[in-house]
């Protein structure tokens, strides 16, 4: 039985060299953050250049946080992204409006800490083209994402077999296989976990992350891992087990 390889997104790229490293490693999607508070922020000029470099070689994702219409239009004109990622407090209605205005697929990021957070994802069903689950930021956090924090993956045990979603939040080359085994996610996304420091992507860690994610593909393998982890989750949260091994 052939397994579909996991789709891998490397997010927060800000230099031609690390973008090239991501493309060479086989990243399926590359993310460009346009959010000035982020250490990975790219302005529209740099974003346009990086987007041109990646055109036709990976899907280009423009990451925005609660953008108004003017900013959406400006990013669209400058970067011409394949996807828009909304990583703020955007409502389902706002997601629908951005889709209608831009004609581009929209990925909606949702912060997850508890099962209640996950239940709220249903509001975006049929509206967002893809859901991205990230760790819920701490109250007062400067960034709504990109914090390098993982959440309890057992909340998503086996969910990827029936519901497509992208998993993110504190993933690393060392932990992505376990995250996939528990959640059966078909796609993963990483920013901090492949950096040598805030905003400084590390080509070796990018390559290691893509290789680990692609090697972990396989529904049966993921299902087996999810069953095992679900059985173990009764004793302790998944993240605690992973943290001890990291
Ligand atoms: O990367 C950022 O700086 C960022 C800023 C604002 C919103 C989202 C951001 N990144 C997204 O968050 C996920 C998880 O990040 P990490 O791997 O835990 O650092 C990342 O994949 C981006 O999609």
Automatic annotation (TrEMBL):
Transmembrane segments: none annotated. It is an enzyme of class 5 (isomerase). It holds the Pfam family PRAI. Residues 8-211 form the N-(5'phosphoribosyl) anthranilate isomerase (PRAI) domain. It catalyses: N-(5-phospho-beta-D-ribosyl)anthranilate = 1-(2-carboxyphenylamino)-1-deoxy-D-ribulose 5-phosphate. Its EC number is 5.3.1.24. Belongs to the TrpF family. This is N-(5'-phosphoribosyl)anthranilate isomerase. It comes from Methylobacterium currus.
């Amino acid at each position: 039985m052939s397994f579909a390889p996991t789709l891998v997104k490397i997010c927060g790229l800000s230099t031609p060299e690390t973008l090239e490293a991501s493309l060479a490693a086989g990243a399926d999607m590359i993310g460009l953050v346009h959010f000035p508070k982020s250490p990975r922020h790219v302005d529209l000029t740099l974003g346009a250049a990086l987007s041109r470099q990646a055109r036709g070689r990976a899907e280009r994702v423009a990451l925005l946080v609660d953008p108004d219409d003017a900013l959406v239009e400006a990013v669209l004109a400058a970067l011409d992204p394949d996807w828009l990622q909304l990583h703020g407090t955007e409502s389902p209605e706002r997601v629908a409006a951005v889709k209608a205005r831009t004609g581009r697929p929209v990925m909606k990021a949702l912060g997850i800490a508890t099962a209640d957070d996950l239940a709220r994802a249903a509001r975006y069903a049929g509206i967002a083209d893809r859901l991205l689950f990230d760790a819920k930021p701490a109250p007062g956090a400067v960034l709504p994402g990109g914090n390098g924090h993982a959440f309890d993956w057992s909340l998503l045990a086996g969910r990827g077999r029936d519901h497509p979603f992208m998993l993110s939040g504190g993933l690393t080359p060392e932990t992505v296989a376990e995250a996939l085994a528990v959640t059966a996610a078909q796609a993963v996304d990483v920013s901090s976990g492949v950096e040598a420091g805030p905003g400084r992507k590390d080509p070796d860690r990018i390559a290691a992350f893509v290789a680990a994610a692609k090697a972990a593909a396989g529904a049966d393998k993921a299902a087996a891992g999810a069953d095992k982890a679900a059985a173990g989750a009764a004793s302790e949260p998944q993240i605690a087990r992973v943290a001890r091994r990291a």
